[in-house]
Write the structure tokens for this entry.
Amino acid sequence: MSTLDCIGAAFHALRANVLRSVLTALGIIIGVAAVIVMVAVGAGAESRVRDVIKSLGANLMFIVPGSGASGGARLGRGTVLSLTEDDAAAIRADIPSVLYAAPSVRGSGQVVYGNLNWSTTIYGITPDNLDAREWVIDGGRRIRAEDLRAAGKVALLGATVREKLFGDGDPVGQSIRIKRVPFKVVGTLREKGETPMGRDQDDVIFVPLSTAKKRVIGGRRISGRLVSMIVVKVRNGDELEEAEVAITELLRQRHRIRPGDKDDFGVRNLAELLQKREESSRIMSLLLAAVASISLIVGGIGIMNIMLVSVTERTREIGLRMAVGASGRDVLAQFLTEAVVLAVVGGIVGIAIGLVGAQVSADIAGWPMLVQGNSVLLAVGVSGVVGVFFGFYPARKAARLNPIDALRHE
């Protein structure tokens, strides 16, 4: 009996009981669809993390002030400002692997344009901040060194602030008020999206560091050379850990911290944080795919069950075929082919449902679901393997029937 004859006989037998065949294949269909959707979700999550890494900038570290205490109560990190512009200059000068060490101050306030207003985050920065964080100017110009020296009242608007205050209009050259201080908009920033923590990176205004200290954010808390944060960009990602150790040693020396005492600052290696998030997303997607794969096993058991029933129902047919010359090998091939065809057809239907499910999930989650070709091929392959594995026992049972006993079966 040729392979084509086996496949034709398999389709004929499955068409004879369409509803039963569909219900039998349902486990395979659900399993394959679930695996494809889960793998697509995982790949989309990893892609999302990579996009976030790209938006934040490559090879970055954030140096933030340490924590303090008041009345015996320990306060959160950043409550005691211990970093200065001179620290940033020393890091840039003394550590060869550092490309930029950009100080900044941070605050919040109301921004007004005409009869519109918006509460946003205000950063006082140096030109190096834009390079370190890889901000792209979408219109106008960037903040320059002369703006810093002259404490110029100029501002760069993030995409969210620009939309809230100006809509589709061009803000470059317009005057706005930040905490009642007039500023001229000299440029706008290209959209970056959200941080890993869900904060909108575009809901910001950048002004020169000197201007922020003197007119917007400064006061008793931020005075003189103090800053809220230092952004460090390393030349090569492989040098991040080495640079982190060197920065820690340098700042401990500059801040006169004795051996054994706690640091009055913190160094956050962004690459490590985002790598852990990416690994977590990958592990979660693998776990979800493993759970979804259980449906394939359940579907395979369903195939075995139905094939055993089919062997019992068709015992006389098997005996008749053997009586007219069919060998046990032919019977084995026929029933094994039926199981494989049932599993593969279920797998193909599951792939179609999985692709639709991945698209629906993408629309709901708001990020792309990446359906990988190898996952589709794997799903079809696994379906065939399930059909062979769970169909072999019923097929072998059919092939070992005694023709005389089979013909007497009622």
